[in-house]
Amino acid sequence: MSTHAPERRPLLTDPNAPARIRRAEALRRRALSPIRILLMILMLPVTTAVIGFSVYLRTSDFEQEEAVLHLIAMAGCPTALKVIPGPYYAGELGYHLRNDPDGNGVACETPQQLAVPVTAEAPQLAQPVERSVGSAKFLRP
């Protein structure tokens, strides 16, 4: 009696293997293909972004079309002003706190809206005071 195991042939080329086993082996080889695994890894950020976008649309306080515009406004004032005419007020479509540097509740104000007419009754705006911390210079807004 021989304790020697019989020589194992690949199932894909074995003519005696049942068809379902050959199909299963072929499917396994395609599923574990290095190219397929690489593509899946490369598509992971895209998949994550699509899932995040869809969750944002479903959980936003705005309607879907408005939620997309609100999300575009998050990119910054130049982009937001191209899509939706501003200014944007707190709690409304297009308002993001990071686009409101002076914190007055109005984001993406144009320079014309910020300008204060100088009259005899209105005091002159003070020039910014320079401050320095270490070697860095800061201007007081």
Overview of the structural elements:
With about 140 residues, the protein is mostly helical. It has a domain at about 60-110. The protein is built from 6 helices and 4 strands, in the order αααααββαββ. Strands 1-2 form a two-stranded antiparallel ribbon. Strands 3-4 form a two-stranded antiparallel sheet. A hairpin with a 2-residue loop joins strand 3 and strand 4. The chain is rod-shaped. The termini are far apart. The mean pLDDT is about 75.
Please provide a brief summary of the model.
The chain is mostly helical and 141 residues long.
Helix-strand layout with pairing:
Layout: H1 19-31, H2 34-42, H3 44-59, H4 64-73, H5 77-83, E1 88-89, E2 106-107, H6 111-114, E3 130-133, E4 136-139
Key phrases:
single chain, mainly alpha, two-stranded antiparallel ribbon, 6 helices, rod-shaped
